[in-house]
Amino acid sequence: MSEARCIDVSSWQHPGGAPIDWAKVQGAGIVGVLVKATQGDGYVNPWLHTDLEDARAEGLLVGAYHFAETGVDGGAQGAHLVSALMGQVLDLGAWIDWEVGPLADYEVGSLYTPMLEAIEAARRPCGLYVDDSWRETFARLALPIRRLWLAAPDGVPAGVRPMIVQTGSGTVDGIAGPVDMDALVSGRGVNLPTAPRPRPVAAPVDARPDDERAEEATEAHIAPVAEPPAVPEA
């Protein structure tokens, strides 16, 4: 598939409480967005549901990510993300944003594995956002990466096959200030939209009297009576 332009956003893209104009974002050629959902085991992005729902209403593919913290139980962090995303449809899935500082090898697995398992109990598969250094660490430790979202502003290393690549930052119409830019480079398991999904609208109200509507419904369900066959003259 050809690359599809995406972005990732958090509460930082709402300075002063300003909403994102998702219609303009879609009009600027953006196909997908990953929204920060949670951090640690207590924080929830106050714009999480608004951004997910408004972006989907404009036809964008959506996903959500959890910002991992050290010193907090990994399973509790995963459960926190699952709880915050209750009821949301995620075209691009759920992700762990792994930007933690240096850790001993055993600490990496003890934090990541229960976090991944807790998320995948409800949201499978769960992807991983890392830079290439951390990607190599995960590979060396044989820790599973279901889907890869790679921070690679200088290009993707040879032989690495991410689903999403974070290419740098830029500006997008409809969003105040800079925003992280991404490219969806693998559409496996994802249906790219060819046009914005329309917002749901209420069914038209039939204002005619009840007896008139009942008469029409009755007529619509009465089968026509066939004419009797002609009897030939003797």
Structural class: alpha/beta
Number of helices, counting only DSSP H or I runs of 4 residues or more: 6
C-alpha-based Rg, rounded: 25 Å
Q: How much is the average pLDDT?
A: 87
Superfamily (CATH H level) name = Glycosidases
Q: Which sheet architecture does the biggest sheet show? A: 8 strands, mixed, barrel
User: How many domains make up the coordinates?
Assistant: 1
Shape: globular
Instruction: Count every beta strand, where a strand is a DSSP E run of 2 or more residues.
Output: 9
Please identify the top-level CATH class.
Alpha Beta
Describe this structure in words.
This protein is α/β, with parallel strands linked by helices. Helices cover 27% and strands 22% of the residues. The chain has helices at residues 22-27, 48-57, 74-84, 105-120, 132-140, 210-220, and strands at 4-9, 32-39, 43-44, 61-67, 93-97, 126-131, 148-151, 164-170, 179-184. It has an eight-stranded mixed β-barrel, surrounded by four helices. Strand 8 (164-170) and strand 9 form a beta hairpin. The radius of gyration is 25 Å and the shape is globular. It starts with a strand and ends in a 14-residue tail after the last helix.
